[in-house]
Amino acid sequence: MNLSIILLLLFRGFFKYLFARDIGVSKKGGLLVSIISGFSLYNIVWTISSLNIVSSMIPFAFWATRKLYKKQSRKRIVF
């Protein structure tokens, strides 16, 4: 396996764990979510495609969006 593929799998799993913990899942549950979804059939089949890079950013986008949403203030709302 290429080092970039391994790093993408770890990146995806790490942010899936953080997102799961952020929505209230326990530590063991977050680890289980990270492992199961990180090595799901979709991720394994598309590891060679460039789609893998984009799909690796989705857990980060969910986690970052939730963090921004939780820290939202009236000053940050743009009409």
Describe this structure in words.
- By secondary structure, the chain is an all-alpha fold.
- The protein has helices spanning 3-22, 27-38, 41-45, 51-70.
- The longest helix has 20 residues, at 3-22.
- The termini are far apart.
DSSP summary: helix tally: 4
What is the gyration radius calculated from CA atoms? 15 Å
Let me know the average pLDDT.
Answer: 80
Residue runs with pLDDT of under 50 for 5 or more positions: none
Instruction: Determine the oligomeric state from the structure.
Output: single chain
Write down the overall geometry: globular
What structural class do the secondary elements suggest? mainly alpha
Report the sheet with the most strands, covering strand number, pairing sense and barrel closure. Answer: none
What series of H and E elements makes up the topology?
Answer: HHHH
Number of strands: 0
Strand content: under 5%
| Spatial gap, N to C terminus | 47 Å
Helical coverage, percent range: over 70%
